[in-house]
Fold:
Amino acid sequence: MNKSIVIIGAGLSGLYLGYLLKKAGFTIKIVEANDRIGGRIFTKKTHDTPVELGATWLWKYNKELMALCQELKLTLFEQAMAGEALFEATTASTVQRFKLPANQDISYRIAGGTLALLEQLAAHFSEDELLLNATVKTIKEQGNAIEVITEHSTFIADSVVSTMPPQLLVNSIHFPVALDDELVDVANHCHTWMKDSIKFAVVYKTPFWKKKGLSGTGFSHVGPFTEIYDHSDVAHKRFALMGFLNGNLAAETKAQREVLVKHQLLKFFGDDGENYLSYEEMVWSQAPLTTTATDTYLNPHANNGHPIFQNMYLNGKFIVAGSETSPSYGGYMEGAIYRGHQIALLLKTTFL
Structure:
């Protein structure tokens, strides 16, 4: 085919699109500003225990994602929910135990962490095809081609696909020939999935909550963490709890948040709760490769999958992709896979 594509971003969207395009015969290059792959998938290993500080779950109705996991021979396992859950209504009230309702949609996790999905995709690329620490500064047309300029290199391609969050894209990359005004406006009002989240995990030596007849699931209307779940590994050899913190705590320091979480764990689980091996967290609003300084509050999934993202720009050489641009499951991992199929089909139709 001899057609070259530069993909900006090595999150799930970028890696999956690269995987599809390479199989179709395109010459591809994926450039990633971060020093790791994954974007908002972030599996961190602590005390030999993988904990998810980004995307975590998938469901049977995520048919595209499920099919990809099967194709890559990844092992899925059910989120542990056996046992009673806990609920905190007010700061003054005691924590209540309750039975979780039956017949809920089963959520699944990937053995080894969500990162395993990325690693399986990344294994298909050479060092020349997947570049980390490569921040794109400028994108411009160059005759019949398009040029991508990073801090240290310049790449010429037939087409460029951005998988960055749209709002981050229009606020961090320079286009000498300005992008469509309506595209920029919609992108600036397009919600970036995970940007409002603070995820945390605490690793333990034993799953003490199970001995208490608890599932590890908990909810709070007033505490620093609003939700918490069992986060032990598939082999039941590594044990953790993981959840979400109140977004208002983003202005506090990590040490301050940990003190608050430790106090709430004590209230929920007794002395066992505060005797953890490690506390980990990720404040996504402070991740420079996720959000921008101009970022303001947007309703969840606002403008995700907007029709304007379906257009091609710079005379058909530039495509805005990524999970937020997907008309199906926009903002989720499933959306990243769905949009990957869309873009791969579009490029094959354009160049074949």
Notes: The longest helix spans residues 333-351. Residues 1-41+116-192+298-352 form a domain with the FAD/NAD(P)-binding domain fold (CATH 3.50.50.60).
